[in-house]
Amino acid sequence: MEHKYTFFKKADIVLAAGLIALGFVVLWFTHSAQAGSLAVVVKDGKTIGSYPLAIDKTVEIDNGTDRNVLVIENGSARMQEANCSGQDCIGFGRIDKPGQVILCLPHKLSVTITGEGGSDAISY
Amino acid sequence: MQYPTNKEKANKVAVCGVLTALALIFSYVEVLLPLPLGIPGIKLGLANIVILAAIYTVGPKYAFSINAVRVCMAALLFGSVFSAIYAMCGALVSFAGMVLLKKTGLFSPAGVSMAGGVLHNLGQLGVACTIMETAGVMYYFPVLLFSGMACGAGIGILATIILRRIHRMPA
């Protein structure tokens, strides 16, 4: 029996184009906020703090079992330490633009950059 | 004539066993060799080569069993309870999407795989959203969408090459 498996069909191209478009739309929505100035820390669904990127600071998030150390310096935030097994949050690197995020899934912790408040809001 | 169908079924079950083992090996290779991109959450999805080949050869029903066994065993052997939830949801969403797209008959294996890659990441992101109780996770969506597309399409092309060879062999 002869089976023909083409590499790409017309529908594949349409699907790819649609997905790329969707990606850019989401990208545009999440990054169209004003210049980033706050690092918002959310743990277990609750906002536990927001820190201006303009001020260098080391934030320790420790509830006895889960420990994360967030470092804010030179206008960007990064996860320096975590006592989880994956260490993925450290892999996110430095974030400074609105919409960028650091996730620590085992600790249910996220750090998001928002453009609300801070020095940029004041200057308008 | 009970005999031929029984033999056929036995053949299929044997093939499924081999495919499951192969998929599990690919899962392991993936754990050993993570992509050196430094971006969390991105992986090739090597095991999906086997799952795709299974969907197109032994059919979706058998492919589902292969995938389910592979995900559970990989979670037990190389993962944690925590990663298992993510892996299972990603695999379920991705598999359902791939079978549906294949059924339309409009898409090539590479296209099906591309959608599978995106859906896998999307499923995991959905779990992250639920577990972390924050929609902020969706900010990571574009990264996972584009990486899922690229990896999925690449894996799909490999699977296409393999499928062509499989069908050239005598049954």
Explain what this protein looks like in three dimensions.
The complex is a heterodimer of chains A (about 120) and B (about 170). By secondary structure, chain A is of the alpha+beta class. In chain A, about 25% of the residues lie in helices and about 35% in strands. In chain A, strands 2-1-7-6 form a 4-stranded antiparallel sheet. In chain A, strands 3-4-5 form a 3-stranded antiparallel sheet. In chain A, a hairpin with a 4-residue loop joins β6 and β7 (about 110-115). Chain B is an all-alpha fold and about 170 residues long. Chain B has one domain: Arp2/3 complex 21 kDa subunit ARPC3 (Orthogonal Bundle), CATH 1.10.1760. Chain B has 6 helices and no strands. The longest helix of chain B is centred in the N-terminal third of the chain and has 30 residues, at about 5-30. The radius of gyration of chain B is 17 Å and the shape is globular. The model of chain B has no long low-confidence stretch (mean pLDDT about 85). Classes of the chains: A alpha+beta (about 120), B mainly alpha (about 170).
How would you sum up the major sheet of chain A? 4 strands, antiparallel
CATH fold annotation of one domain in chain A: mini-chromosome maintenance (MCM) complex, domain 2
Largest interface: A-B, 42 and 39 residues
Distance between the termini of chain A: 71 Å
Provide mean pLDDT of chain A, rounded.
Answer: 80
User: What's the alpha carbon Rg of chain A, rounded to whole Å?
Assistant: 20 Å
Q: Name the CATH homologous superfamily of one domain in chain A.
A: N-utilization substance G protein NusG, insert domain
Structural class assignment of chain B: mainly alpha
Order of strands across the widest beta sheet of chain A?
2-1-7-6
Uncertain regions of chain B: pLDDT < 50 for 5+ in a row?
none
The count of β-strands of chain A is 7
